[in-house]
Amino acid sequence: MNDAIIGILGGMGPEATADFYLKLIKATEAGKDQDHFRVIIDSNAKIPDRTGAILGEGPSPVREMLHAAKNLETLKVDLACIPCITAHYFIDRVQKEVSYPIINVFQEISRYLYNYYPSLTRVGVLATTGVLKTKLFDNYLKHMQIIYPDPVSQEEKVMKAVYGEKGIKCGFKQGEPVELLNKAAGELTEGGAEMIIAGCTEIGMVLKEDMVDMPLLDPMQVMARAVVRQPMLRCQKQDKSPKPF
Protein backbone atom coordinates (compact mmCIF):
# COMPACT_ATOMS: atom_id res chain seq x y z
CA MET A 1 0.00 0.00 0.00
CA ASN A 2 1.06 3.58 -0.65
CA ASP A 3 1.16 4.58 3.02
CA ALA A 4 4.06 7.03 2.99
CA ILE A 5 3.36 10.76 3.25
CA ILE A 6 4.90 12.82 0.46
CA GLY A 7 5.71 16.50 0.87
CA ILE A 8 5.95 19.01 -1.96
CA LEU A 9 7.95 22.16 -1.25
CA GLY A 10 6.25 24.28 -3.86
CA GLY A 11 5.21 27.72 -4.94
CA MET A 12 8.17 28.13 -7.31
CA GLY A 13 5.96 28.84 -9.23
CA PRO A 14 2.42 27.90 -8.15
CA GLU A 15 1.26 26.52 -11.51
CA ALA A 16 4.44 24.48 -11.86
CA THR A 17 3.73 23.02 -8.43
CA ALA A 18 0.19 22.06 -9.46
CA ASP A 19 1.50 20.60 -12.71
CA PHE A 20 4.00 18.45 -10.82
CA TYR A 21 1.28 17.19 -8.48
CA LEU A 22 -0.71 16.01 -11.51
CA LYS A 23 2.39 14.22 -12.79
CA LEU A 24 2.78 12.57 -9.39
CA ILE A 25 -0.82 11.38 -9.46
CA LYS A 26 -0.39 9.91 -12.94
CA ALA A 27 2.86 8.20 -11.93
CA THR A 28 1.11 6.38 -9.08
CA GLU A 29 -0.42 2.97 -9.77
CA ALA A 30 -3.91 3.24 -8.35
CA GLY A 31 -7.30 1.71 -8.90
CA LYS A 32 -9.17 3.93 -6.46
CA ASP A 33 -8.69 7.11 -4.44
CA GLN A 34 -7.31 5.25 -1.45
CA ASP A 35 -4.47 3.77 -3.50
CA HIS A 36 -2.85 7.19 -3.86
CA PHE A 37 -0.31 8.67 -1.48
CA ARG A 38 -1.19 11.27 1.07
CA VAL A 39 0.46 14.42 -0.30
CA ILE A 40 1.05 17.62 1.64
CA ILE A 41 1.85 20.69 -0.44
CA ASP A 42 3.27 23.92 0.91
CA SER A 43 2.93 26.21 -2.10
CA ASN A 44 4.85 29.19 -0.76
CA ALA A 45 4.69 31.67 -3.61
CA LYS A 46 6.45 34.25 -1.41
CA ILE A 47 9.78 32.47 -1.82
CA PRO A 48 12.10 34.98 -3.55
CA ASP A 49 13.05 34.34 -7.17
CA ARG A 50 15.83 31.77 -7.35
CA THR A 51 17.49 33.04 -10.51
CA GLY A 52 17.52 36.59 -9.14
CA ALA A 53 19.24 35.39 -5.97
CA ILE A 54 21.84 33.38 -7.88
CA LEU A 55 22.63 36.35 -10.13
CA GLY A 56 22.95 38.67 -7.12
CA GLU A 57 19.86 40.63 -8.14
CA GLY A 58 17.57 39.68 -5.28
CA PRO A 59 17.29 38.17 -1.79
CA SER A 60 18.10 34.56 -0.99
CA PRO A 61 15.17 32.13 -1.08
CA VAL A 62 16.66 29.89 1.61
CA ARG A 63 14.81 31.34 4.61
CA GLU A 64 11.38 30.87 3.02
CA MET A 65 12.33 27.48 1.62
CA LEU A 66 13.36 26.40 5.12
CA HIS A 67 10.10 27.71 6.54
CA ALA A 68 8.13 25.53 4.11
CA ALA A 69 10.45 22.57 4.69
CA LYS A 70 9.97 22.83 8.45
CA ASN A 71 6.20 22.97 7.96
CA LEU A 72 6.39 19.68 6.09
CA GLU A 73 8.54 18.21 8.85
CA THR A 74 5.97 19.21 11.47
CA LEU A 75 3.36 17.36 9.43
CA LYS A 76 5.61 14.27 9.48
CA VAL A 77 6.23 13.73 5.76
CA ASP A 78 8.38 10.71 4.94
CA LEU A 79 10.13 12.42 2.05
CA ALA A 80 9.74 15.52 -0.08
CA CYS A 81 10.60 17.04 -3.42
CA ILE A 82 11.04 20.51 -4.87
CA PRO A 83 9.33 21.06 -8.25
CA CYS A 84 11.67 23.90 -9.20
CA ILE A 85 14.90 22.96 -10.92
CA THR A 86 16.66 26.25 -10.22
CA ALA A 87 15.85 25.91 -6.50
CA HIS A 88 18.00 22.78 -6.38
CA TYR A 89 21.02 25.05 -6.16
CA PHE A 90 19.95 25.55 -2.53
CA ILE A 91 18.82 21.98 -1.79
CA ASP A 92 21.80 21.00 0.38
CA ARG A 93 21.23 23.99 2.67
CA VAL A 94 17.62 22.93 3.15
CA GLN A 95 18.31 19.21 3.46
CA LYS A 96 20.71 19.60 6.38
CA GLU A 97 17.99 21.36 8.41
CA VAL A 98 15.30 18.66 8.13
CA SER A 99 15.18 14.99 9.09
CA TYR A 100 13.39 13.58 6.03
CA PRO A 101 15.07 13.03 2.65
CA ILE A 102 14.52 15.50 -0.18
CA ILE A 103 14.67 13.94 -3.64
CA ASN A 104 17.35 15.61 -5.79
CA VAL A 105 16.06 15.92 -9.35
CA PHE A 106 19.59 16.13 -10.80
CA GLN A 107 20.56 12.81 -9.27
CA GLU A 108 17.40 11.30 -10.70
CA ILE A 109 18.12 12.73 -14.17
CA SER A 110 21.61 11.27 -14.08
CA ARG A 111 20.29 7.88 -12.99
CA TYR A 112 17.55 7.93 -15.64
CA LEU A 113 19.93 8.75 -18.50
CA TYR A 114 22.40 6.10 -17.33
CA ASN A 115 19.67 3.44 -17.29
CA TYR A 116 17.72 4.36 -20.43
CA TYR A 117 20.16 6.28 -22.65
CA PRO A 118 23.57 4.74 -21.90
CA SER A 119 25.00 5.72 -25.29
CA LEU A 120 23.94 9.35 -25.06
CA THR A 121 26.89 11.76 -25.18
CA ARG A 122 25.48 15.24 -25.95
CA VAL A 123 22.40 16.84 -24.40
CA GLY A 124 20.92 20.25 -25.00
CA VAL A 125 19.55 22.09 -21.97
CA LEU A 126 16.92 24.80 -21.89
CA ALA A 127 17.00 26.30 -18.40
CA THR A 128 17.06 29.55 -16.49
CA THR A 129 20.19 31.66 -16.50
CA GLY A 130 20.56 30.83 -12.82
CA VAL A 131 20.90 27.14 -13.60
CA LEU A 132 23.39 27.87 -16.38
CA LYS A 133 25.53 30.07 -14.12
CA THR A 134 25.69 27.48 -11.34
CA LYS A 135 26.55 24.70 -13.84
CA LEU A 136 24.21 22.29 -12.08
CA PHE A 137 23.78 20.12 -15.16
CA ASP A 138 27.53 20.09 -15.80
CA ASN A 139 28.21 19.01 -12.22
CA TYR A 140 25.73 16.14 -12.23
CA LEU A 141 26.19 14.99 -15.86
CA LYS A 142 29.96 15.09 -15.97
CA HIS A 143 30.17 12.23 -18.45
CA MET A 144 28.22 14.20 -21.07
CA GLN A 145 28.71 17.26 -23.20
CA ILE A 146 26.13 19.86 -22.22
CA ILE A 147 25.00 22.23 -24.97
CA TYR A 148 23.36 25.52 -23.99
CA PRO A 149 21.84 28.34 -26.05
CA ASP A 150 24.20 31.19 -26.90
CA PRO A 151 23.88 34.25 -24.62
CA VAL A 152 21.56 36.12 -26.98
CA SER A 153 19.18 33.19 -27.41
CA GLN A 154 19.29 32.53 -23.69
CA GLU A 155 17.98 36.01 -22.92
CA GLU A 156 15.77 36.68 -25.95
CA LYS A 157 14.25 33.22 -26.26
CA VAL A 158 14.54 31.09 -23.11
CA MET A 159 14.31 33.74 -20.38
CA LYS A 160 11.71 35.71 -22.34
CA ALA A 161 9.62 32.57 -22.73
CA VAL A 162 9.66 32.02 -18.97
CA TYR A 163 9.73 35.55 -17.50
CA GLY A 164 8.50 37.79 -20.33
CA GLU A 165 5.27 39.80 -20.32
CA LYS A 166 3.70 37.00 -22.33
CA GLY A 167 5.81 34.33 -20.64
CA ILE A 168 4.88 31.15 -18.85
CA LYS A 169 5.09 32.66 -15.36
CA CYS A 170 2.48 35.21 -16.47
CA GLY A 171 0.12 32.40 -17.42
CA PHE A 172 0.82 32.10 -21.14
CA LYS A 173 1.32 28.49 -22.24
CA GLN A 174 0.69 28.89 -25.95
CA GLY A 175 1.83 31.24 -28.65
CA GLU A 176 4.98 33.27 -28.01
CA PRO A 177 6.67 31.18 -25.27
CA VAL A 178 6.20 27.97 -27.25
CA GLU A 179 7.55 29.58 -30.42
CA LEU A 180 10.57 30.97 -28.60
CA LEU A 181 11.40 27.65 -26.93
CA ASN A 182 10.96 25.76 -30.20
CA LYS A 183 13.49 28.06 -31.86
CA ALA A 184 15.93 27.66 -28.97
CA ALA A 185 15.55 23.87 -29.06
CA GLY A 186 16.19 23.89 -32.80
CA GLU A 187 19.43 25.77 -32.27
CA LEU A 188 20.57 23.16 -29.73
CA THR A 189 19.76 20.43 -32.25
CA GLU A 190 21.85 22.20 -34.87
CA GLY A 191 24.63 22.40 -32.29
CA GLY A 192 24.77 18.61 -32.01
CA ALA A 193 22.39 17.85 -29.14
CA GLU A 194 20.99 14.30 -29.19
CA MET A 195 18.34 15.07 -26.57
CA ILE A 196 16.69 18.20 -25.20
CA ILE A 197 16.21 18.54 -21.45
CA ALA A 198 13.49 20.91 -20.24
CA GLY A 199 15.73 22.24 -17.49
CA CYS A 200 13.13 24.58 -15.99
CA THR A 201 9.83 23.36 -14.57
CA GLU A 202 7.85 25.95 -16.54
CA ILE A 203 9.51 24.90 -19.79
CA GLY A 204 8.39 21.32 -19.24
CA MET A 205 4.82 22.60 -18.94
CA VAL A 206 4.69 23.92 -22.50
CA LEU A 207 7.39 22.16 -24.54
CA LYS A 208 6.23 18.67 -25.52
CA GLU A 209 7.83 15.73 -27.32
CA ASP A 210 5.85 16.22 -30.52
CA MET A 211 7.29 19.73 -30.84
CA VAL A 212 10.94 18.71 -31.23
CA ASP A 213 12.73 16.36 -33.61
CA MET A 214 14.53 14.36 -30.93
CA PRO A 215 13.90 12.91 -27.46
CA LEU A 216 12.69 15.49 -24.96
CA LEU A 217 13.24 14.84 -21.26
CA ASP A 218 10.95 16.44 -18.69
CA PRO A 219 12.78 16.22 -15.34
CA MET A 220 9.51 16.58 -13.45
CA GLN A 221 8.25 13.35 -15.02
CA VAL A 222 11.47 11.66 -13.94
CA MET A 223 11.17 13.03 -10.42
CA ALA A 224 7.52 12.03 -10.11
CA ARG A 225 8.41 8.42 -10.90
CA ALA A 226 11.34 8.56 -8.49
CA VAL A 227 9.19 9.97 -5.68
CA VAL A 228 6.64 7.19 -6.17
CA ARG A 229 9.36 4.53 -6.03
CA GLN A 230 11.03 5.88 -2.89
CA PRO A 231 8.13 5.57 -0.42
CA MET A 232 7.18 2.18 -1.80
CA LEU A 233 10.67 0.94 -1.04
CA ARG A 234 10.51 2.58 2.39
CA CYS A 235 7.25 0.81 3.19
CA GLN A 236 8.65 -2.51 2.00
CA LYS A 237 11.65 -2.11 4.30
CA GLN A 238 9.44 -1.29 7.26
CA ASP A 239 7.17 -4.29 6.69
CA LYS A 240 9.06 -7.14 8.35
CA SER A 241 6.19 -9.64 8.36
CA PRO A 242 6.85 -12.93 6.58
CA LYS A 243 5.38 -13.26 3.11
CA PRO A 244 3.49 -16.39 2.03
CA PHE A 245 4.96 -18.48 -0.75
Structure description:
The protein is α/β, with parallel strands linked by helices and 245 residues long. The chain is 47% helix and 12% strand. The chain is built from 11 helices and 7 strands. The strands form 2 sheets. Strands 5-4-6-7 form a 4-stranded parallel β-sheet. Strands 2-1-3 form a 3-stranded parallel β-sheet, with helices on both faces. Helix 5 crosses helix 11. It is globular. The two termini are 19 Å apart. Mean pLDDT is 91; it is low at 235-245.
Ordered list of secondary-structure elements with their pairings:
Layout: E1 5-10, H1 14-27, E2 38-43, H2 50-54, H3 62-74, E3 79-81, H4 91-95, H5 105-116, E4 122-126, H6 129-134, H7 136-140, E5 145-147, H8 151-163, H9 176-190, E6 195-198, H10 201-206, E7 216-217, H11 219-238
Parallel strand pairs: 1-2, 1-3, 4-5, 4-6, 6-7
Helix pairs in contact: 1-11, 5-11, 8-9
Give descriptors for this structure.
245 residues, alpha/beta, four-stranded parallel beta sheet, three-stranded parallel beta sheet, 47% helix, globular, disordered C terminus
Summarize the model shown.
The chain has 245 residues and is α/β, with parallel strands linked by helices.
Low-confidence stretches: 235-245
Helicity range of the residues? 40-55%
- The neighbouring-strand order within the major sheet is 5-4-6-7
| Tertiary shape | globular
Q: What is the count of DSSP helices, taking H or I runs of 4+ residues?
A: 11
Order of H and E elements: EHEHHEHHEHHEHHEHEH
Structural class: alpha/beta
Mean of residue pLDDT? 91
Compute the CA-based radius of gyration. 18 Å
Tell me about the largest β-sheet.
4 strands, parallel
